[in-house]
Amino acid sequence: MDHWHAYAYTGPTKPEDRDARDPLSATPPLVVREWLRKPRGMLVGTFTEPEAALTWLAAQLAESPPPPSAVPADTVIGYARERIARHPYDQVTRYYTAGSYVCRDLVRCTGAPGECPAPA
Predict the structure, then answer these.
(1) Residues of the chain with pLDDT > 70: what percent?
(2) Residue 117 falls within a domain, yes or no?
(3) Which helix (H) or strand (E) holds 96?
(4) Dist CA 25 CA 8 (whole Å)
């Protein structure tokens, strides 16, 4: 059954590429699908309903809002809603704040054995 895994990372800056490529490193990957191979502790939620996944993303954006110069949170949520509703794709949300790099990603998972870190 298709579902979405939610991943969150906040750090002082974007991680080095070598760390992002390392499946054991607790940093966001360069390729979104690689989240499924990252440490399980980075997985913060699993959602079977698109609306629940979008609610999580909206709460995250409210907690750590993008800066005024970035795409507004409402626009990000609208884009994510369209993307998830029309095609069950991943939603990538990454931006810089005054003192950190914020990553809030929703990764679509089919639940395939050996791929899914937390079956729904």
Answers:
(1) 96
(2) no
(3) strand 91-96
(4) 14
Q: How far is CA 75 from CA 78, 82, 111, in A?
A: 5, 11, 29
Instruction: Dump pLDDT digits (tens) for 52-67.
Output: 999 999 999 999 999 9
Inside any domain, residue 119: no
Asked if pLDDT for residue 82 goes beyond 60, the answer is: yes
Rounded to whole angstroms, how far apart are CA atoms 26 and 24?
Answer: 6
Our count of domains for the chain comes to: 1
Give me the sign of the Cα torsion angle 40, 29, 93, 70: positive
40 found inside a domain: yes
Tokens of 71: 């795409």
Q: Does any domain span residue 114? A: no
Tokens of 93: 């949300």
Instruction: Encode pLDDT of 5-38 as tens digits.
Output: 999 999 999 999 999 999 999 999 999 889 999 9
**Residue 77: in which H helix or E strand, if any?**
helix 73-86
> Which range of residues forms the domain containing residue 85?
3-109
